[in-house]
């Protein structure tokens, strides 16, 4: 599954375009965000991507989950968003 990492500085429209592209190509995608700002940008991107895919009759569903990731030897908790089309 394709993994898109989102930061607090990510442009939600750019992430949404990438998300919609992966959904069209592979059928599902996973976004990963660490921190409140990154989670905010990820949620905005998912909402924008729903608009992008709706024009072709595809709606998206998002399932959030916690995951532990290692960054520079430190373990951090991230939120993963599993995004897949419905309908």
Quick structural summary:
A hairpin with a 2-residue loop joins β3 and β4 (74-86). This protein is an alpha+beta fold.
Mind explaining what this structure looks like?
Strands 1-2-4-3 form a four-stranded mixed beta sheet. 39% of the residues lie in helices and 41% in strands. The protein has two helices and four strands, in the order βαβαββ. The chain is of the alpha+beta class. It has a single domain (2-86), classed as 2-Layer Sandwich (Translation Initiation Factor IF3), CATH 3.30.110.20.
Question: What best-fitting shape do the alpha-carbon axes yield?
Answer: globular
Largest sheet: 4 strands, mixed
Number of helices: 2
Number of domains: 1
CATH topology: Translation Initiation Factor IF3
In the CATH hierarchy, the architecture is: 2-Layer Sandwich
Order of helices and strands: EHEHEE
CATH class wording: Alpha Beta
Strand count: 4
Q: In percent terms, what proportion of residues is strand?
A: 35-45%
Q: What structural category arises from helix and sheet content?
A: alpha+beta
Termini separation = 20 Å
Average pLDDT: 96
Q: What integer value in Å does the Rg equal?
A: 13 Å
The CATH homologous superfamily is termed: Alba-like domain
Tell me the strand order in the biggest sheet.
1-2-4-3
Show unreliable segments: none
In helices, the fraction of residues equals 25-40%
């Amino acid at each position: 599954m394709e993994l898109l990492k989102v930061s607090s500085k990510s442009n939600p429209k750019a992430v949404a375009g990438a998300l919609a592209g992966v959904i069209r190509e592979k059928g599902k995608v996973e976004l990963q965000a660490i921190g409140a700002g990154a989670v905010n940008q990820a949620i905005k991107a998912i909402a924008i991507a729903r608009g992008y895919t709706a024009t072709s009759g595809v709606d998206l569903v998002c399932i959030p989950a916690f995951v532990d990731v290692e960054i520079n030897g430190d373990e951090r908790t991230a939120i993963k968003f599993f995004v897949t089309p419905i309908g």
